[in-house]
Every structure is written in C-alpha cells, then in structure tokens.
Amino acid sequence: MDNKTKKHPHQKPLQLQKILIESVSNPGEVIVDPAAGGYSVLDACLLSNRNFLGCDIEGEDGSYARVFDNGQLGALISRVQSASISSGIELEGLIIEKSDLFLVQTVEEMESLLTNGEKFDKKTYLIPKKVVKNSPKFRFKYEPDYLILKKETKTLYITELKDGDNFDTKKSSGEAESLRQFKNHISENVPYKTLILVCCFNQTDKKKIIKGFKNKIKPEEAFTGQEFCELIELLKIEECRKIILEILQTKGERL
Asked: What percentage of the chain carries pLDDT values higher than 90?
C-alpha cells in the first residue's frame, strides 16, 4: 500500500483500466483479477459491460469451505470481490453457464412467461429484481431479489438470496413480512404455485437461517447454498473447481 496515495502501488487510473479491458475482451466476457485488493478493476468492468471475478487467495475462510467441502476452494471463493450478490454479476453468470437456466432480461419476456409459460422450453427461469420492478403488472412496493420459475413442478419461488453466512437481523423480520406480502400479490396473477425461498448462500445450518430471520420463516422456506444449487441444478461443483484452478494457473498463481 502506498501511504502517500492510499492506493495499491500497481493500481491504474480507472479510464486506463477500462481501455485496457475493452482492448482485450468482448462485452459479457469474464475479467479475472487474481490480486483484487481494491475495486478499481471491478469498476472498470462495470463501465465496460464485462463480468468480473476477483480473488485474493491468501488465508482460508471456513464458511465457504463448508459450502464446497474443500478448504482451498473455499478460501478462494470467499475472497471473490463483487459489488453485491443481488446485482448478479458473478452469480447469474455462473448459474447460467453451469445449469439449464434461462435469464429473463425484459419485462415482455417476464410477463409472457408468467402468464403463458407453456410456450417456453427451458426447465428453470431466473427473473432479476430489476425486471420485476419495471413491470406494471407485477411490481409491488417491495420486490424480492429474484423470481425463480421451475417449469416441471409449476412452482414460482419468491427468492431472497444473501451472500455470507448470516443476515442483518435488524431488517430480517421486516423482509420476511415483505416477502409474504409480495407472495400474496403475485399469486393472484400467475397460474403457478408460489413459495418463499430464503437462501443464506454461505450457511449450512438451516436453523441459523431461520433464527436470523427472527423465526418469521418456515423450515421449508430456508435454503442453504447447497440446497439452492440443487434446486437450480447447479451440481457441477467439480467442474467449477477445475475452471477456477485453470484460471489461476493461467495467471501464474498457485493454490
């Protein structure tokens, strides 16, 4: 760290990083920063419409190690830097790449899917909060992080997805009530069974998720990260591990 500038010694100006990123990649591709001590590369990726994967492989974090049942991989994943998991920068990209999941990106797609889903052929659909908010028919005073539609079971999951292994308990009680209100609202307008899904992605103990939500959610509404992956059929953890290790080796890094 440079004590005079309070920046990392190799940190480049934002616009220069943006130019460099755009010169070697295409929109939608993933930019990997193996030494993500700050957020400048992330900011440049956001400006350039690139996805971002940043990591700091020093140390080991037990919580992600529990999710992936691998200490080294857990340490790596736990250092991934992102603006917010709800922004979907890493999460949506990984889910879509590794599962039979379709990302709904427009209000028109969402409204057609939720009112006449028979003409859509994917098994699982992910609808981000920003799309729901722009729909005159489905928006509400509160929208969840995602709507997840499983065609096989005709079930629409009203999903609150958190990174880490705990919740902000000061807000969780109110969030639980807001989820119920949204469920009642959307249930009147869709031909699907609606269920609430609260996932604390980095938590393996359902009881702790329920407690974090002030016991305002039911056991069947609490999902661990592994259960969430199973729901959306994101089961290729070994393949995920292989890709991450290949990225690190390309960058000359070692676990």
From this structure: 25
